[in-house]
Amino acid sequence: MEMLGNLLDNAHKAAKGQVEVKIIGSSGLSIDISDDGKGLAQNQIKEILQRGHRADTYQQGHGIGLAIVKDLVDSYQGKLNITGKSSLGGANFSIKFNK
C-alpha cells in the first residue's frame, strides 16, 4: 500500500489529465504506473530516489516518498525501474517482484 500510494500520488500530481496503471501477476508481480505529465530528465531519475530530493515544485512535500518506495522494493528483493518518458509522454515507474 505504501509503494502504490506514493507512486499513484506522484503520478496524479504530475499528470496533465491521464494516469495509466498496469498490473500483471503471471510470473511474479509487475506494476507499471505512467502519466501524461512532462516526464523526467535522465539526471533527475537518480536524484529523486535520494531522501530530500524532488523533481517537482508544484505540490508540497518532503522528497522522501520515492526513497521509501525504493527501500521497500529493495527489502522485498524487487526491481524498480524509472523511465523519463512513457507512452503517455510523462514518466513511467515500474516495479517487478519475482515469485
Q: Your description of this structure?
A:
The chain has 3 helices and 4 strands, in the order H-E-E-H-H-E-E. It has helices at 2-14, 42-47, 65-75; strands at 19-24, 29-35, 79-83, 92-97. With 99 residues, the protein is of the alpha+beta class. Helices cover 30% and strands 24% of the residues. A 4-stranded antiparallel sheet has the order 1-2-4-3. Strand 3 and strand 4 (92-97) form a beta hairpin. It is globular and about 35 Å long.
Secondary structure topology:
Blueprint: H1 2-14, E1 19-24, E2 29-35, H2 42-47, H3 65-75, E3 79-83, E4 92-97
State the major sheet.
4 strands, antiparallel
Shape assignment: globular
The chain-level structural class is alpha+beta
Helix content: 25-40%
- Gyration radius from CA atoms, angstroms: 13 Å
Poorly predicted parts: none
Strand percent estimate: 15-25%
- Total helices: the number is 3
| SSE string, helices as H and strands as E | HEEHHEE
What is the CA–CA distance across the termini? 19 Å
- pLDDT averaged over residues: 87
- How many strands appear in the DSSP assignment? 4
Please list the strands of the largest sheet in the order they lie side by side: 1-2-4-3
Question: Which structural traits does this protein have?
Answer:
globular; alpha+beta; 3 helices; 99 residues; four-stranded antiparallel β-sheet
Brief account:
The chain has 99 residues and is α+β, with helices and mostly antiparallel strands. Helices cover 30% and strands 24% of the residues. Strands 1-2-4-3 form a four-stranded antiparallel β-sheet.
